């Protein structure tokens, strides 16, 4: 059969198939817009499947909770107590760290502190005076004294210093005159002693020259005896004068020792008194530090930034007992702490430092947004609420302490309820869609 006849025959058969196939006739007879719609539908389905396979959604564990103070409520007390002089805050007021929130009457403590300070300043001047006396230095009033009272104390001590130094100098003058007189007496005694030695020498020579005359009869023995007695007396006088000189020198040395001892005693007494005064001064300083601390505590300060929760006393003039509670302050921090309860079935995928989103029920989430935070704490065991339900207690710390809209800050107070979403992972959309099928597949045809 010729080739041309075969082609004609194939076309003939195709035409017959087209005429006999109703779907083919429908397809090729549809308008072009339907063809485009069909292709778009197919493309959309394919795109949706691809998107569902790659698009990720966050897996979250949800819990209900409430805002709690990031730190414990601060209970303010006063060690000494006292009479309320001024109340500067009311319940609900915002306070800052170091702000004066209450004043107590400081009359008694102020009086005690001022008296102690005057005593301290007086002892300080006394210490300076005693140091000058002990070291033998000149007492000088320092420059730049804080007030007139301190300068007055130094001037009084300087007068006392001058009086004591003058008394010491007067005693030294007396001793000096006595030493001078003793020196003169010693000098006179030495002169008399030299004269007595010469007289004795002459008497002794006369005796020696007269003895040979007794043998020749020119001089009697009685005369010799008289000369011997006279020489003995002259020698005795010289010896007495020598002894007297020694006595006077000894007395002079003793007097000189007294002069030195008197000055040493003056310095020693000053040092002893200085030691005692310094000890007393240190005790006074320590006592004044304690008094000043008590005086400062008459102004009750807020230890933290926060909100006044409760005032235990409201009456000006009322008496606060020592150590009793005065004010309770709820601390405010740079972060919020959300305490929430998670069902045991949802606890398996939670661990510290997971991201969390907090939505406060008091503010519309769609309008005011949410707070981001992180999971900080998971309780070690379940707790049971008043309805007998078991929960794990978790705490989430937020990055901010308020919500804002249009530049306006919305305060968040402890006790506000919140919904907490803890982000535990990611899953594709197709996984979410296939999850029921997979669950059914795993449980199908397994019943007894």
Automatic annotation (TrEMBL):
Q: Does the keyword tRNA-binding apply?
A: no
Q: Which residues form a coiled coil?
A: 165-199
Q: Where in the cell is it found?
A: Cell inner membrane
AprE-like long alpha-helical hairpin domain: residues covered: 120-293
Membrane-spanning parts: 34-54
Q: Which UniProt keywords apply?
A: Cell inner membrane, Cell membrane, Coiled coil, Membrane, Transmembrane, Transmembrane helix, Transport
Question: What residue range is the signal peptide?
Answer: none
Mode of membrane association: Single-pass membrane protein
Q: Where is the AprE-like beta-barrel domain?
A: 336-425
Give GO BP annotations, semicolon-separated: protein secretion
Please give the InterPro entries that the UniProt record associates with this protein. Answer: Beta-barrel_AprE, HH_AprE-like, MFP, Secretion_HlyD_CS, T1SS_HlyD
Pfam families for the chain: Beta-barrel_AprE, HH_AprE
Q: Which GO terms describe its cellular component?
A: plasma membrane
Q: Which family does it belong to?
A: Belongs to the membrane fusion protein (MFP) (TC 8.A.1) family.
Q: What is this protein called?
A: Membrane fusion protein (MFP) family protein
Instruction: Look up and give the organism this protein is from.
Output: Sinobacterium caligoides
């Amino acid at each position: 059969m010729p080739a041309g006849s075969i082609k004609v025959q194939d076309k003939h058969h195709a035409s017959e198939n087209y005429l006999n196939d109703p779907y083919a006739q429908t397809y090729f007879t549809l308008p072009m817009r339907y063809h485009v719609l069909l292709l778009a539908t197919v493309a959309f389905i394919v795109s949706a499947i691809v998107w569902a396979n790659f698009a990720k959604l966050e897996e979250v564990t949800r819990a209900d909770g409430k805002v709690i103070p990031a730190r414990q409520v601060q209970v303010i007390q006063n060690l000494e107590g006292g009479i309320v002089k001024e109340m500067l805050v009311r319940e609900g007021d915002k306070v800052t760290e170091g702000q004066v929130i209450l004043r107590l009457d400081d009359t008694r403590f102020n009086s005690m502190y001022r008296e102690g300070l005057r005593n301290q300043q007086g002892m300080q001047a006394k210490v300076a005076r005693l140091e000058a006396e002990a070291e033998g230095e000149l007492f000088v009033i320092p420059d730049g004294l804080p007030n007139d009272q301190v300068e007055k104390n130094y001037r009084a001590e300087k007068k006392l210093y001058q009086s004591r130094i003058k008394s010491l100098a007067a005693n030294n003058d007396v001793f000096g005159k006595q030493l001078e007189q003793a020196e003169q007496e010693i000098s006179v005694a030495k002169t008399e002693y030299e004269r007595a030695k010469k007289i004795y020498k002459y008497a002794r020579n006369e005796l020696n020259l007269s003895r040979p005359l007794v043998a020749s009869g020119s001089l009697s023995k009685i005369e010799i005896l008289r000369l011997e007695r006279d020489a003995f007396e002259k020698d005795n006088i010289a010896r007495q004068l020598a002894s007297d000189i020694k006595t006077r020198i000894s007395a002079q040395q003793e007097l000189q020792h007294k002069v030195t001892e008197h000055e040493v005693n003056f310095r020693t007494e000053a040092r002893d008194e200085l030691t005692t005064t310094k000890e007393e001064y240190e005790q006074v300083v320590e006592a004044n530090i304690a008094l000043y601390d008590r005086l400062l505590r008459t102004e009750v300060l807020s230890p933290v930034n926060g909100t006044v929760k409760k005032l235990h006393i409201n009456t000006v003039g009322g008496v606060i007992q020592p150590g009793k509670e005065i004010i309770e302050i709820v601390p405010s921090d740079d972060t919020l702490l959300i305490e929430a309860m998670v069902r045991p079935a949802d606890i398996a995928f939670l661990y510290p430092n997971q991201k969390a989103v907090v939505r406060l029920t008091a503010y519309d989430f769609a309008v005011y947004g949410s707070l981001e935070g992180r999971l900080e704490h998971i309780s070690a065991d379940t707790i049971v609420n008043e309805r007998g339900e078991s929960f794990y207690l978790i705490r989430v710390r937020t990055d901010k302490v308020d919500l804002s809209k249009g530049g306006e800050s919305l305060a968040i107070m402890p006790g506000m309820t919140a919904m907490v979403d803890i982000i535990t992972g990611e899953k594709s959309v197709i996984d979410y869609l296939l999850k029921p099928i997979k669950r059914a597949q795993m449980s199908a045809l397994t019943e007894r």
